[in-house]
Amino acid sequence: MGARMSSEMPGFGLATVLAVGIQILGAAFLYLILKAEGGWQVIGLLALLAAGFYLIEKRPQITEYVTASFSRVPVVALVTAVIVVVLFPFAVGNNTYVLHLLIVAQLYAVLALALNFQLGSANIPNFATGASYGIGAYVSALLAINFGLSFWLTLPAAAIAATLFGFLIGIPSMRTRDTYLALVTIAFGVVVQQLLNNFDWTGGPNGLVGIPAPSLFGHSFADPLVVFGWKLPSQANFYYLSALLVVVAIITAHRLHSSRIGLAWNALRADEIAARAQGINVAWFKVLAFAVDAFLAAFAGTIYAFYVSYISPDNFTFLVSVTIMTMVIVGGMDNIFGVIVGAFLLTILPEKLRAFSDYRLLFFGIVIIGFLMIRPQGLFPQRIRSYGESR
Amino acid sequence: MSALLEVTDATMRFGGLVALNAVSFSIGRGEVLAVIGPNGAGKSTLFNVVTGVYRPTSGQVRFDDADITGRPSHEVVARGIGRTFQTSRLFSDLSVLDNVIIGMHTRTKTGVLGALFLPGASRREMAACVETAEILLKASSGDLFEQRHRPAGTLAQADRRRLEIARALASEPKLLLLDEPSVGMDEVETDALIADISRLRTERPELSVILIEHDMRVVEAFPDQVMCVDYGSKIAEGDFARVKSDPRVQEAYLGKAAVHA
To answer: Chain B residue closest to A271 (CA)?
Structure first.
């Protein structure tokens, strides 16, 4: 255990209570905000959230202590997380709108985790994640519609196509950086969207219609999900599918972050010249970040296409890329948990602020600025790596 | 036996400016070479040519019986040349330990697929890195080891310098290039630095060191081989006593009038 921990370590009992309790509290909060109706309920919950972040900003020991609790009882924490995620749709019941929000939030969480490899780990401003997302969606949709390929086969095909695209944008990125690199990626994103809009075989501005629902062991994802007599709406299928993808994204992010690759990206972020002097092939690691980003984004795109069964270029605009970037910045650069929280917050908030009708976006902006004022480094900032701990 | 590093007629031009003018020198295994010269004489350019940051306009760099002229930096590091920078370039938002581990980049080999599908191997590799890094930090003078979990940006100046050296050593270099390691240090710290380098030499008799120095106390401590550079050209070479008494060196440092006065 890290000798630097000045505060005492939590005991097993307390750690268990904290690891279970905090997750249930978090889930309850998510449930409440999803169910909230009317402006005042939403404002009240946001105020509560802001107060919480204010508290951990003023008392950083709290975060340290809670993190220590989670790594003290990793199995308990993990089992609780799985139970919470699996049971959540049962609590939501037949509210398909809430399930829809959760699916979109999870897909955005994957996209934000994908971008985090670049923006968070390596400080590469990539504004083309939306384009990779779109390429994933279009490739899988085209394969399914034209060749009758099943969802499970289009998934890897779309990922490979998008990864090649990632390498393609990566190449000019080897020679540019910072603002110039951002411009190159913006250009790529716009080009992709324009191509989707103008090709005949992509359906032009009308997009692609009639993407068949995936099925697994004879169960079509368009049918309601029946578990032990409980009947969940068909969206629940996609809820679990996207939850699984989030897990894959978390594992990918965690493994890369804690390996030599993550360190090399961090070195690149801190000082490119010094990174080069440590023997890091800077150009290759930049391109690699683009490829990993595109790979994960394509998975999210594929699930999205099969979920809504209708895609058009409007789903993958520059604005989508900006939204994903905001999620990473608000949630916390290079912090897996923070990025996921950012994605959920920024997906759910605009929907919940519909109560303010015309002033919705104004209010949304104010809330984001407010959170960044409370937590300037993001809701959950990057952490110094710790070694030898159980995780 | 052939030299470890051999630079032949290295010339570096930036437009009309000749930063290095046909400089030749060599260093054998286990030797220390001090490079002195006024500011802007081309000492750092020399390092950049050796480490592949710049490709020389003409001339050749041979290291360990291979031509490395203009090879990319990452390859040069992998071949065994480690360096520090004049203004310290640590990864300031990463921990002291991580800085040293990144120094081992060329000595580790997990790729993306390895990290994703063989997490056990990747974890073992990192654990081994942590172990080696801790040994390096313990071996360094001062209390770097005790501060290993702190962000490198919060270290004091002397510790930053030590960490840069530890990070360079992490790549298991055969040749270590130190660019003005004593800059910004007081007398006590400079003495500690001299002691550090001397100890390094006894612990690693095979390691060669090239030092760029302004502080003559450091140069005096390693007086066997000194080279003086001015306006991009080598103007003197030999042991410290000889270089010091060379009229051209005195001229470079003190000006013509002072020498002839």
So the answer is: B91
3-state helix, strand, coil in chain B (%, to 5): 45, 25, 35
Work out the pLDDT band at A1, boundaries 50, 70, 90: very low
Q: Give yes or no: residues A86 and A166 share one domain.
A: no
* A125-180 pLDDT per residue, tens: 889 899 999 999 999 999 998 898 888 999 999 999 999 998 888 888 777 778 88
Packing angle, helices A151-173 and A129-147, rounded to 10 = 140
Task: Enumerate long-range contacts of A17-25, CB under 8 Å, 24 or more apart.
Answer: A18/A65, A18/A66, A18/A69, A18/A70, A19/A69, A19/A70, A19/A72, A19/A73, A19/A76, A19/A77, A19/A80, A20/A76, A20/A77, A20/A80, A22/A66, A23/A77, A23/A80, A23/A81, A23/A84, A24/A80, A24/A84
Q: What is the DSSP letter of B1?
A: -
Determine the Cα angle at B92 with ends A181 and A385, to 5°: 95
What sign results for the dihedral spanned by CA atoms B75, B81, B86, B87? Answer: positive
Q: What does the longest C-alpha to C-alpha distance in chain A come to?
A: 65
High-pLDDT (> 90) share of chain A, %: 41
Q: Do B89 and A277 touch (CB under 8 A)?
A: yes
Contact call for A388 and B151, based on CB within 8 A: no
- Per CATH, the architecture of B5-260 is what? 3-Layer(aba) Sandwich (3.40)
Pair A97, A206 in one domain: yes
Amino acid of residue A200:
D
Structure tokens at A53: 């972040």
Comparing CA positions, the residue from A106, A39, A147 lying closest to residue A346 is: A106
> Which has the closest alpha carbon to A339: A112, A170, A163?
A112
Tell me how far apart the alpha carbons of residues B196 and B160 are, in angstroms, rounded to a whole number.
14
What torsion do the CA atoms of A36, A37, A38, A41 make, to the nearest 10 degrees?
Answer: -20
Structure tokens at B176: 């270590």
Higher pLDDT, A295 or A3: A295
The helix or strand, by DSSP H or E, that contains position A285, with its residue range, turns out to be helix A282-308
- Paired with B212 in beta bridges are B35, B179
Q: For position A172, what pLDDT does the model report? A: 81
DSSP state of A212: P
In chain A, positions 129-148, which contact chain B (CB-CB < 8 Å)?
none
- Residue A380 included in any domain: no
Q: How large is the ipTM?
A: 0.90
Residue A370 counted as domain residue? no
**Closest to B50 in 3D by CA, of B20, B28, B30:** B20
Q: Label residue A81 by pLDDT band (50, 70, 90).
A: very high
3-class SS of residue A329 = helix
Query: At B130, phi and psi to the nearest 5?
Result: -60, -45
- Tell me the H-state helices in A123-150: 129-147
Give the CA distances from residue A73 to residues A69, A76, A81, A214, A341, in Å, rounded to whole numbers and listed in that order: 7, 6, 12, 37, 22
Cross-chain Cβ contact A278/B167 below 8 Å: yes
- Report the C-alpha gap between B40 and B19 in whole angstroms: 8
How many contacts does A have with B, using Cβ atoms within 8 A?
Answer: 116
The boundaries of the domain holding residue A14 are: 1-92
Q: Which of residues 226-285 of A touch B (CB under 8 A)?
A: 252, 255-256, 258-261, 263-264, 266-267, 269-271, 273-282
- At A17 the pLDDT is 86
- ∠ CA A19-A24-A25 to the nearest 5 degrees? 100
Are A300 and A317 contained in the same domain? yes
**Average pLDDT for B145-169:** 91
In a domain, A128, yes or no: yes
Position A106 pLDDT exceeds 90? yes
